[in-house]
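Hi P.,

Sorry for the delay on this. The queue was packed all week, but I finally got your sequence through. Input first:
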Amino acid sequence: MALHSTRKARGCWRFIRALHKGHEAAPALQVSEHTQLSWILSCMVRLPRLQHLHQWKAKTAKQKHDGMVGLLTYPVLQAADILLYKSTHVPVGEDQVQHMELAQDLAQGFNKKYGEFFPVPKSILTPMKKVKSLRDPSAKMSKSDPDKLATIGITDSPEEIVQKFRKAVTDFTSEVTYDPASRGGVSNMVAVHAAVTGLSVEEVVRRSAGLDTARYKLVVADAVIEKFAPIRSEIEKLKMDQDYLEKVLQVGSAKARELAYPVCQEVKKLVGFL
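Then the structure:
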């Protein structure tokens, strides 16, 4: 799973970086300092701490085996990604808060042992902390969900988005209300609608008065399509310019190495490798 995610990362990264028109960073697989720092940090965390992380327990529970080491230690690599650039604030989803707490603990533990070196990063949460699955409102929306109707992708066609929202799980009450505890499916629709339009949940509910949930799903689908349209268009345009994308990766890799190398070298000196 970890290797599969790494393979996918390179393709996704091309479009993400190019969409931002920036050369400031590069994927970890092109900067070896990420894995070097990850190994050093892994020597500072105990096995039970990683085994008690929610995502590890949730994902291994769905598998018939005990899970791969790469999946277990992935949060340490995430911490290395953050600390290597001495990040102070990191935008994350609610499901990543535990992993951020690990990064914070590793920074504090390193500083306590070797002196003040890493800033202790803080999480930045958006108003919509977690997007729920369209097929199971009790679970988060995930790219790895085997049910392809559960997740909306930025590159999905308008037809695919409409189909997914048509099939979204709601309930047998037709009125549009926001009550996550008892109406998870409809509340997820409202939350998504609010997120893509910039409206408050209360305003979304007010504007949806008189709509049944079947019609409301299509309203949300249209709002998502409108939000994603310029991004999807830009991605399609960038896919036609592979030379530019490769240049973004090359320049980004060089810049990332320039930033990462001295930090990693200093860490090695502090722990006694150099």
